[in-house]
Amino acid sequence: MTSSTPAQVILPFQKSYKSALCIIPPPSSSYSPQIQSIRKKHDPHIKRWPDSHINLLYPFTPLPIVGNVKSAILSRLQKTLRGQKPFIVRLKQLDYFIHGKRSVTVWLKPESWPSEELERLERRLVDGYVLDDDNNNNNNNDVVVGGDEVSINDEEEKEQVGFQNFDDLIKLGGDHGFTPHLSLGRFRSEQEAKTAITQYKAFFSDAKQPIEFVVDHVCLITRSGFHDSFQVEEIIRFDES
Q1: Between the CA of residue 144 and those of 6, 28, 75, 162, what are the distances in Å?
Q2: How many CB atoms lie within 10 A of CB 56?
Q3: What is the pLDDT of residues 148-157, one digit of tens each?
Q4: Using CA atoms, how far apart are residues 160 and 152, in angstroms rounded to an integer?
Q5: Could you write out the three-class secondary structure of the chain?
Q6: How far apart are the first and last CA of the chain?
Q7: Which of 19, 112, 154, 233 could form a disulfide with 117 if both were Cys (CB 3.0 to 4.6 A apart)?
Q8: How far apart are CA 21 and CA 144, in angstroms?
Q9: Is-contact 81 236, C-beta < 8 A?
């Protein structure tokens, strides 16, 4: 006798600094070599983060991301991003974070068009939203993610999506909330950071040709150990339908 009880996939409650969801500017672009040149000179973590990137969810889910767990994560990401339209990111303004007396990070401030689309994408990924799902008529699985049960079966037309527990980057920004940024390098003082911004301003802020690219997907990146390099494991493209 076959059981009619829906199968369940339990996604981990824990978070891991060995995985992240991010945006990676096209490595083949004309400006990528210049960004990487600056990072090679000033970014002590370039071996761990070989690609320039804008983090969206970090830390993310624990490793290994395989089998049914991987399928459930990718399915949830795809459903979360359903209806997300591509948008443009421009890299122009430079700023810095002060971590301590001898630790200051210089970063590029991504400007999106439509305005604040990066911030809306972050809220979509974290908060989720209710959507109509016309494609789940043949799916009888229940997926439990972060303590929220998401039932997918013939009788339901809507489901909750998003990764509600993975709001670390929103909390990190304090009163400012999520602060999208692309790190260029770390410096020993605020003055050194300001000097670097002045030096690189000509390439970014004063550039005659805007440094911009279209965002039509996000990347799931992972690393085996804390000293290993992050590698792209999956590309999740936006579904505008």
Answers
A1: 12, 39, 12, 12
A2: 23
A3: 333 333 333 3
A4: 10
A5: CCCCCCCEEECCCCCECCEEEEECCCCCCCCHHHHHHHHHHHCCCCCCCCCCCEEEECCECCCCCCHHHHHHHHHHHHHHCECCCCEEEEEEEEEEEEEECCEEEEEEEEEEECCCHHHHHHHHHHHCCEEECCCCCCCCCEEEECCEEEECCCCCCEEECCCCCCCHHHHHCHHHCCCCCEEEEEECCHHHHHHHHHHHCCCCCCCCCCCEEEECEEEEEECCCCCCCCEEEEEEECECC
A6: 39
A7: 112
A8: 20
A9: yes
Query: How many Cβ atoms from other residues are within 10 Å of residue 199's Cβ?
Result: 12
pLDDT of residue 158: 41
This prediction has a pTM of 0.83
Give me the residue label for tokens 């992240």: 20
| Alpha carbon 99 to its chain's center | 22
- Take residue 193 and report the two structure tokens written for it: 């950071």
Tokens of 100: 């301590």
Q: Tens digits of per-residue pLDDT, 203-236?
A: 998 877 889 999 999 999 999 999 999 999 999 9
What is the maximum alpha-carbon separation in the chain?
73
User: CA 136, CA 139: separation in Å to the nearest integer?
Assistant: 5
Q: List CB contacts of 198: < 8 A, sequence separation 6 or more.
A: none
Whether pLDDT at 100 is above 90: no
